[in-house]
Each structure stands twice: as C-alpha cells, then as structure tokens.
Design goal:
This protein has helices at residues 21-32, 44-58, 72-86, 118-146, 183-202, 224-231, 246-253, and strands spanning 12-16, 36-41, 63-66, 91-94, 149-154, 208-215, 264-267. By secondary structure, it is an alpha/beta fold. The chain has a domain at 4-100 and 121-157 and 185-217 and 246-266: Rossmann fold (3-Layer(aba) Sandwich). Strands 3-2-1-4-5-6-7 form a seven-stranded parallel sheet, with helices on both faces. Helix 4 (118-146) links the parallel strand 4 and strand 5 (149-154). The radius of gyration is 19 Å and the shape is globular.
C-alpha cells in the first residue's frame, strides 16, 4: 500500500506542454496517485489523441485542451473549461518550453549567440517564461481563491549550469557554423527558478506551494556520439529514462512535500555535482 501522503485522489493537475515527452510522464505520475491529469498543448490534435489514449489506458477522465500559453485569453478559456468539467484546479505543472534539437543538428549559425535573432529570443521566452507567468497568474489565482494548491515549474540542469557546448560540436566545421544550445534556453530555465522563489514567498500565506524541478537530459533516440559525450559529464554514467522523473513530480505535487516551498529539486544523475 502506498503512503497516504502521496495520494492525489480527486486532485486536478493542469500540465502545460502536455503532449510532449515529459508531459505524458507527468500525467502518468499524477494518474498513478489517483489524480486527474489535464493536458494543455498548442498541438491540438496530438494532445487530444494523447488524452484519449491515456483515458482508455488508465481508465481516467483525462482531458486534453488545445491552447497557446503565450495568450492570456486562451489560458483563461482553458481554466473556464476545467472548472466547468471538474469544478476545481489543484496543481499546475509549467512544463511548456521551446527546446530546439541541437544534438545531431545540421551545421547552422542560427543558434550561435552572435547571430541569435531577437525574434527567436522573444519567441523562446514567450513560451517558456511568459507562458509560465501567464499560467501562474490564471491558474494560480484560482488556487489562491480556494486557499490551496501546488505549482511546479519545470526548469533544467541548464538552469543551474551553463551548457557544455563541446557535446554538440561537429567535426571539421568552422566555428561560426558549430551548433550550440541557444542562450534563450538557459535564460528561460534560470528565470523559472527565480519565478519559483518569488511566488513561493508571495503566496506563502495563501496555501500555495511553489517549487521547481531541474531534470537532466532524457534519452530519446539521440545520436550515439552525443549520448557518449553527455554521459561522460554525468556521474551516474547515463541519461535519464523518460519515466525517471515521475517519483519527483509526485513528491512535489503531493502532501509528501507539504513543508517544501521555494525549493529547487535537482534530478540530474549528479551532473551538477561536477
């Protein structure tokens, strides 16, 4: 029998970026504790298909909503639909982010700092940071009104350390064409930790806990050479499996972490130790 502190029975958990690799895993963690995941994603067809598949597989009423988290009116519409369907919202997981694939990329200069466009910068911050801000305003305010709730901001190990750009390098390629992890990704993930601390103290007396999780890289069919380079930087010697963050998400969502707010939970195989 599971510990009662981990029980999420009847809890409604909104997960942005819900159609993505980790969005599905967050949903499974919620469902395993008898909570109800609500998936939100700009990819409307994909999020609807995933919600239907999880509903059938888990025998739960998993909802999928198409919405752009950078647009307050769309987020407010989702809140209204969630309240109409379930009557409450208890958990918000800010998981949506722009994360361009760098490993195995073709030679390009677009991601390099010197040529990184302001339009791309604004677009990346709009999703990863502005989207979290808007969702915290909309869903967080509803939880404040009820006097109870949990927010989890999904940061990254790269919110704590700089990307090691050597792992993305291509042989015999001019420096100005070497792919790199864009500056916007690190800025967004670092800023989410700041947003976490701000809201944790701001809402401390309103029954809302706000924490961040910093996951490391997830193995998902990356080129073998890239995986080798990255795992050499990780004390545990491997990347994460997609399901290895479920326990951490469940911990942060549940009463098991009832005396925890404003914290950053690092789950990275030890990478930030080195």
């Amino acid at each position: 029998m599971s510990h009662p502190a981990f029980d999420l029975s009847g809890k409604i958990a909104v997960i942005t970026g819900g159609a993505g690799l980790l969005g599905e895993q967050h949903a499974r963690a919620i469902a395993a504790a008898r909570g109800i995941p609500v998936l939100v994603d700009i990819a409307g067809v994909r999020v609807a298909e995933l919600a239907n598949r999880l509903s059938d597989e888990l025998r739960l009423n998993v909802a999928g909503f198409a919405a752009d988290v950078t647009k307050p009116n769309e987020v407010k519409r989702v809140l209204a639909e969630v309240l109409q369907r379930y009557g409450r919202v208890d958990i918000l997981i800010n998981n949506a982010a722009a994360n361009p694939k760098v490993e195995g990329a073709e030679p390009a200069s677009f991601s390099r700092f010197e040529s990184f466009s302001l339009d791309q910068w604004n677009a990346d911050l709009a999703v990863g940071l502005n989207g979290a801000f808007i969702c915290c305003q909309v869903f967080g305010s509803e939880m404040v009104r009820r006097g109870s709730g949990v927010v989890i901001n999904v940061s990254s190990d790269l919110g704590l350390i700089a990307p090691d750009q050597r792992i993305y390098r291509l042989p015999n390629m001019p420096e100005n064409l070497q792919p790199v992890k864009p500056v916007s990704y690190s800025i967004v993930k670092s800023a989410l930790i700041g947003l976490t601390r701000y809201l944790a103290t701001y809402w401390a007396g309103r029954g809302i806990r706000v924490n961040a999780i910093c996951p490391g890289g997830v193995e998902n069919g990356q080129p073998e050479e890239f995986v080798t380079r990255l795992t050499n930087l990780i004390p545990m010697g491997r990347m994460a499996r997609p399901d290895e963050y479920q326990g951490a998400i469940l911990f942060l969502c549940s009463e098991a972490s009832s005396y925890m707010t404003g914290a950053t939970l690092v789950v990275d195989g030890g990478r930030t130790c080195w």
